[in-house]
Amino acid sequence: MSWKYLLFEAKLLINNRKFWFIAVFLLLYFPIYYMIYSDTDPETLQDGKRVEQEMTDSALDQFSDDILETTDGQQVYDNLLDQLSLINMQIYYIGLGNDDQAYIDDGLKLNELRLKNHELNNVGIPEHLIIPKDEVLKEEAFLSYINEKQIPLDSNEYVASKYIVVAVSIMSGLMYYFIVLLTSGDMLVYEKQHKTVVNGFPISFMSKVFSKIALYFVYILIPLILGTLLSIWYAARKEGLGNFSEPVLIYQQGDYTAISTSQYLVYVFGGIVIITLMVLLLSMLLNVLFNNLYATVLIGLGLFLIPELLMAIHWDPLFLRIFKYVDIVNILSGDLALELGDHGIDYWHALTWMMVTIIIFSCILYLINKLNYRRNLITKGVSYNAKA
Question: Could you give the CA distance from residue 325 to residue 349 in angstroms, rounded to a whole number?
Fold first, then answer.
């Protein structure tokens, strides 16, 4: 009977215009975004090094005679001169020199010098010209990975392997959360409008819940995955496939680690699977409580945005933090851990708490169903006694 109910719900979705609109959007989002992205001018390695060159030049100009007379000040100044020399050589190596290994070697030396200046408290360098320590550690992890795996540096930012990392970062967070809410916001509306039809399926409420969630889960992920594969094919046809072994930095256990692009995408889509289940259960819970598409979407969006507003007044309620975990790219990059000042927030931490939330939402739905069942029994009993 559950299988027949699942087929019945699938037919309803197929005949739903909203279903097709969202499916087409998910299918075409990545390919269309590539067309937009290919018209932009993303920062290359050489562009980044030229910015660093200008910053180092400016920092050297800020040193006064008083600072240079101190031991630390002179060390920092000499250190900056060495940094500038290494940066100039790096610009040459990724340009006319075409020597990846020399670029990496000088980059590792450059990071050592920057960390040394951090130990000296960057005496004499204005705050806005200091390369943050986190950025130095990221660069260290990036270069060490390339050096260990002997991966060539690719300056083409439009290849499929680099584009898809940018595209999933745009989709992650509020956009995807809203799509799932909008898709599932009226899961129980038909149930209320056509009770006689739905009651023809004698299955339990929780069986209906899990059948609906399974159906919506598949319905959302299939066009999303197909759209991702379509955009990779399109980008590869235009600019090349790229190298899915190239490193992407993630934040893990309080430190930055480089992993391959393919492993990064597995992490992202693994997170999306858990996020989809959690948001679908949240949507089902709001459906049970309010039975209204607009209420479900608005309250769901409110739960996502309220933590952002509370952060503005320096209040971070732990019970709402789970909604910030929806931005899986923000978790992987370590930006959320830095924003909240909690170094324990990483990918596995976020996934663990989202799975706990899934169990909590399922238990709440079960309890609400039990309470409604008992209330109906009491109501029917009172009505029967009154007739008698």
Answer: 9
